[in-house]
Amino acid sequence: MMGEHELLGAIEGLEAETLQRWVDLGWVLPSTDGEAVRFDATDVARVRLIFDLQYELRIEESSLAVVLSLMDQLYEVRRDLRRLAAAVELQPQDVRAAIAKRIGGKQ
Questions:
Q1: 3-class DSSP state for residue 47?
Q2: CA 18-22-28 angle, 5° bins
Q3: Which run of H or of E encompasses 2?
Q4: What was the pLDDT predicted at 33?
Q5: Helix/strand/coil (H/E/C) assignment for every residue in 56-94
Q6: Measured between alpha carbons, how far is 83 from 81 in angstroms, rounded to an integer?
Q7: Which pLDDT score is estimated for 106?
Q8: How far apart are CA 89 and CA 57, in angstroms?
Q9: Rounded Cα gap, residues 55 and 57, in angstroms
Q10: Quick one: which of 10, 37, 9, 36 has its CA closest to 28?
């Protein structure tokens, strides 16, 4: 976990007002400890992503909400697919072969 000042120091060019705007928009969801805001590793990665999208790729704020939503959906689908693959892997060989045949894969 890191505080706001640590995060601002870790990302060159990031300003407190910009970070607060992203929090206000719900793009970053830090935890609060009393009055202190704390960012976990996921929050930090998301701030870096938003920073890169906005300042490196020059994606405008109005489009950024759509991009973040699509990326969130993609990450959720990937997480679900990993869980499904792990569940399939636990099945007997004949079940795995039937699944692979059904989806057109090779076993």
A1: helix
A2: 135
A3: strand 2-3
A4: 82
A5: HCCCCHHHHHHHHHHHHHHHHHHHHHHHHHHHHHCCCHH
A6: 5
A7: 57
A8: 39
A9: 6
A10: 37
- SS3 for 7? helix
Burial 15-29 (b: 16+ CB within 10 A, else e): eeebbeebbeeebbe
Give the helix/strand (H/E) hosting 38.
Answer: strand 36-39
Q: Which of 17, 22, 84 is closest to 52 using CA atoms?
A: 22
Cα–Cα distance, 36 to 32 (Å, whole number): 6
CB atoms within 10 A of CB 30: 23
In this prediction, residue 35 carries a pLDDT of: 83
Reduced to 3 states (helix: H, G, I; strand: E, B; else coil), residue 42 is: helix
Kindly tell me the number of DSSP H helices and DSSP E strands found in the chain. Answer: 5, 3
- Amino acid letter, 91: Q
| Average pLDDT, 10 consecutive residues per value, the chain (107 residues) | 94 96 96 90 96 95 94 96 96 93 75
Residues 6+ apart with CB under 8 A from 25: 65
